[in-house]
Amino acid sequence: MKIANELTMGELFCGPGGIALGAKQASTMINGETWVIKSRFASDYDRDTCDTYRNNVGEEGCEVLCSDVRTLDIGKLPRVSGLSFGFPCNDFSMVGESKGLNGTFGPLYQYGVQYLEKHQPEWFVAENVSGLTSANEGKAFEMILSALVGAGYVVSANLYKFEQYGVPQCRHRVILVGIRKDLGKHFAVPRPTHTAGTYVTAGQALADIPAWASSQEHTKQSPTVIERLKHIKAGENVWTANLPEHLKLQVKGAKLSNIYKRLDPAKPSYTVTGSGGGGTHMYHWSEDRALTNRERARLQTFPDQYVFSGSKESVRKQIGMAVPPAGAKVIFKALLKTLAGKSYPSVEPSLGLHAPSVKGVVVPAFTKQDVDLIAA
To answer: Would you call 89 a catalytic residue per the annotation?
Structure first.
């Protein structure tokens, strides 16, 4: 079997390997030739996360750098075909203070930009939460786009609703796919494959988990929590359920919808998160308990043989922060076809196409025709 292109990929903020696994699974035949993506290096600051990555997707020759990105010498990192970076979302999330570029983590996207400027890979994939577009009154998103376009890339910006691509979870993320301007190509967003009525449901996703799979420890529930859950039906949360007075939560201000929320087995789950106290662990639709980490991993589309390193809480964090491999696979398969010049069913990017102009960086979205002219 002839391999036309064996592309190499580097990652910053790699997490436990959701992007890497999706990229690996995206290997595809195009015009009789095989196209593959192989990891060359990966970086993350958390030791358990690095171990998970190394033990599951770290291929021979892939260096896993377990250190804060701010300590890396970006110029000395290996040159690869493409860079992926799911820069930390903490400051862009709509849950919390939403500090955006004014937070501790918001500016870390710049390390991905530095790599692009210094090494000029052919493409990049950058991921963040949907709140990215509204942080700092929209100025953060504009600044990030300006930097990526200024590095010399035609950028397709889209809000992906992963349930529309077969992920059993309503996980909505901004993903930016850039292709170096001189290649004369732009990434087209793959057309969604699922609609309401055909979504993969939580009930389907959590069926038949084998006993041998790891991370199936149960969270110890207090008698009060168990009693409260008995009054909450599938799809309800602590605010919408008909609870006796002594089981209601006395909370003023914002009331997050995922507090003691049970899954609905007939729908995709709500978003899997990596942290949070009582009431945020995600709850089974019929059993009076929180989900296990393996069940959360199923909702994130990690295979059962994927073993996460670290404590139960560490594993929960890794799973919640990851990109669903099944969602990443769709994007990387489309990227490979784009690079090979093969068309596929697509839609216009919801956040526009952005490209360098002859007069400098232009951030406002271009039409497809504009980008074709600029690339030419």
So the answer is: yes
